[in-house]
Predict the 3D structure of the following.
Amino acid sequence: QVQLVESGGGLVQAGGSLRLACAASGGTFSNYAMGWFRQAPGKEREFVTEISWSGSRTTYYADSVKGRFTISRDNAKNTAYLQMNSLKPEDTAVYYCAARLRAHDYDYWGQGTQVTVSS
């Protein structure tokens, strides 16, 4: 059973930056692909980005964040990161990290961290 805890959310002005962290425990971190999702008020949760298992570290991004957000992982620290630059008010949401094993859906979720971007 994997436990995930996000941190690093907060209030930032448009154009600013934030870095979210997702600390994992209870599993072999390098075996899991790590993803970030977000949910804005009144909207469904949406995919933001994913980084694959340790071997290839292939990354995927939603079109809305390409070129602005960067996902990374530090297996020695069992932590995934989301660097968010050039933030926009429409990036305001609760951000969740999630983990999945190969050929599985996302089975493990953090509690979420609020990101608010003011205009």
